[in-house]
Write a structure and sequence with these properties.
With about 675 residues, the protein is α+β, with helices and mostly antiparallel strands. Helix content is about 45%, strand content about 20%. The strands form six sheets. A six-stranded antiparallel β-barrel has the order 3-6-9-8-7-11. It has a five-stranded mixed beta sheet with strand order 19-20-21-23-22, sandwiched between helices.
Amino acid sequence: MAYRVIADHIRTLTFAIADAGVPSNEGRGYVLRRILRRGARYARRKFSVELGSFFAQLVDTVVDQMGDMFPEIRKNTDLIKEILCEEEVSFARTLDRGERLFEQTVAKMPAGSTVIPGASVWRLYDTFGFPVDLTRIMAEEAGLSVDEDEFNREQERARELSRKKKGSALGADNVVLDVHAIAHLNKQQVPKTDDEPKYNARTVEARVLAVFTGDKFVDEEVRSIASNPDDVPVVGVLLDRTNFYAEQGGQEYDTGSLVSLDGNSEFTVENVQVYGGFVLHTGFLKYGSLKIGDAVEAQYDVLRRLPIRNNHSATHVLNFALRKVLQSEEIDQRGSLVAPDRLRFDFSYSKAIRPEEVRDIDALCNKAIDENLRVFAKEVPLADAHQIAGLRAVFGEVYPDPVRVVSIGADIEEVLKVPQDARWANYSIEFCGGTHVAGTADMKQFVIVEESSTAKGIRRIVAVTGEEALKAQLLQRSLAAEVKSLHSQQGAQLDAEIKRLAIELDQAVIGVYDKHVLRQEFESVRKAFIEADKAAKAQALKQATEQVQQAVEQNPDQEVFVFKLAVSGKAMVQVAKYIKDLKTKAAYFIAVDESGAKVAHQCVVGKEVLARGQLKANEWAEAVSQVVGGKCGGKGESAQGSGTEVARVDEAVQVAKDFAQTKQA
């Protein structure tokens, strides 16, 4: 039984990821994540396996057994394994902590109780990220149940409060430490925040030193979502030490929570800024109270921090790659943004960067990732740091003394022994106070998704790493397959696909060079289609014109004609002009549009025919419109219309003939 469970899980995961699915916190990605996590815990319980690469080891077996029938799973086996390993490693940490917290929750239950409070289950998920479905499974294994009604109420209340609190992060802008607030803190001899733990500790125990409402300091804050949901203020909290990263140097702030050591209160951190050495955590109280002297556990959102860390290190790698590929000394950083979903890097450079150069920059960055270069960081006296060959710093920035030096691939201790050695120019070495990966392989992948100009002499590159880079690569492969499929299409179907893909290619967040290559292939297909379509329409117009001319010439005494043509509406206008110029004839032209979705029709009545007052174009068109639907308009000499009843075209032809004969009679 256990083997079949594992087999079901690995088959599902392999096929889903091969089909461009990526585990995430929303949509089908969340379904994948839940499947993997349930399977991982099951494997650890049943087989006592070490989580990290368990499912990845089974991918080859799935491919061997099913790859011939489903060849798509053979294409990206390394990528599938990489995603599975990354998810397992991440979940192993969550699982260890979640099981420990679950045991603590059960231990707090009254003696003899067999129902776990729904509020506790929700808190395990909301505060600590432990999956609810795993909590239910663990409860069942322990002979317990979950108070589902209470859980659902807590979940719904959290959603409602979340909707109300959407603007609270903006409210954090109003909670800032101005010069007066900082002067008050200094007068009260409140120490500056020790933020050294931000580089290593995922959680840290700290003590509350101050609570700031935006206009005054208070001893205690008791207004929480739980007690006062309609009027929860945004406040700032100062700690003696913190592992949260305050926004600076282009890197975005951390978010997370401050949880009291007794578990009776939780403060949600939505923004972190530093003012004169004081790190202010702004947010709101979820439940309980928070007062000066309280001991709390500060825990930042790991899932937010990790991609930020990846992107910051990638910014350094990119800065180095730009100098190497573009071979220019004018390149200097002019600004940056390091966010969870992307990195943005502005730099001085006077020329546009060619797609091939973007490709080479991409390749050099990914080469550094493949080599898994170690990242070193050390505080160095400013004067000594300036002696390092190849050192990069932000133009115009004032740095502290000592300054933190971050090196990718070169041990800073070795660098400082011979700082002016020219070989250090072959490494990325920068002044930086941000958070970084331990090794470049943590970034997984690097993709430049935008290259543009922001001002004269300033270029901008936007890139993604990790999961976002993976999404870009999967989208690129999907679009490449769609562009390739254009070669086997024709006619109206090809026309529709070209129009759709043109929009998708413009909007697609994929590699700049990949998009360049796809556009070249796409444009060749579109150009060939346009030329073929133009030639086909010209031929159809020629045949239609000859058809009309031949009918008129072969029936010189016939005054009224009705034609069913294989031309577009525009071509029909040109054919109609021939009859109009004759002045002694009247004709009705009906054609099905190439898209097959509508009927175009037009009629002309020569001046001599019209003068007799029997046949008028607008009346004629009205009769046909009643058959093909849609609208029509015009005057006695000429009228046209468009309908949707494609299946009734032959009937419309007959109606046009009958109407003319009736009028002539």
